[in-house]
Design a protein that fits this description.
Length: 248
């Protein structure tokens, strides 16, 4: 019976500063660890690629070269000295795991953390890391949404085009009411209260010669967005008043 074929493995090493070299993370030290690990576990170490960049992004030449080797099937596993050589970002790690490592499409091997994606225990660790990365993304999304909602409640600018009826104040942080557009909003609200359709409202505005910011007649979609904003603005004002009353 022939011996099983050795796993074709591409090694990846990264260093970004002299301090890392002093801490034992030099390129030579990482290479030695990868080569010793490959000999110990019978890996076919086809190549070791090197980046001399920080881990702020996954867009590193050598890392992309290694991933391309995994994608085209010329390598089956990625070997690293430590996880932080691959990335320091939980989000970026999650992206890599979901793309191929956690699913078993590729194998991740880490000397420092003793992670071997070929084993059940190694795959369990990768799945846990994937879940942590997903939690981190969702937590960031929730924190961002909370900040945006808080800023909106305070009538602060949150980026993008100011909603119809408002302009950006001189401090570039708050919105101020635009008188002419507020008259349009008031008319839209009045016509909607009379049960007119969105198209009928748009036609009435056109009859009065009122135009959008692009100097074109309003359409039904714009009218719908105006009405949503009018409703959300009223809710924000009520919320702000309640907050002020509670604080008082």
């Amino acid at each position: 019976m022939s011996a099983p074929r050795a796993t074709r493995t591409i090694g990846y090493v990264r260093v970004s500063s002299r301090q890392q070299a002093e801490q034992g993370l030099s390129l030579a030290a990482q290479r030695a660890k990868l080569e010793a690990y490959a000999r110990l576990y019978g890996l076919d170490l086809v190549e070791i690629v090197v980046d001399r960049l920080s881990a702020k992004t996954l867009k590193r030449p050598a890392l992309q070269q290694a991933l391309d080797r995994l994608r085209d099937g010329s390598a089956e596993a990625l070997l690293i000295a430590k996880l932080d050589r691959l990335t320091r970002s939980v989000r970026d790690l999650g992206q890599l795991l979901e793309e191929g490592f956690a699913s078993g499409r590729w194998t991740l091997l880490s000397v420092g953390e003793q992670i071997d994606g070929r084993s059940a225990a190694g795959r369990l660790v990768l799945n846990v890391l994937t879940s942590v990365a997903q939690w981190e993304r969702e937590a960031i999304g929730e924190r961002t949404a909370a900040v945006i909602h808080h800023k909106i409640a305070l009538n602060e600018y949150v980026g993008g085009q100011p909603p119809f009826g408002y302009r950006l104040a001189k401090d570039a942080r708050h919105l101020r009411r635009h008188r002419a557009e507020q008259r349009v909003l008031a008319e839209v609200r009045r016509l909607r209260a009379r049960k007119l359709s969105l198209r009928q409202i748009a036609a009435r505005l056109a009859d009065r010669g009122w135009r959008s910011r692009s100097s074109r007649p309003f359409d039904a979609g714009q009218i719908a967005r105006m009405l949503r904003h009018v409703g959300s603005s009223s809710s924000r004002r009520s919320s702000t008043k309640r907050h002020m009353a509670t604080a008082a």
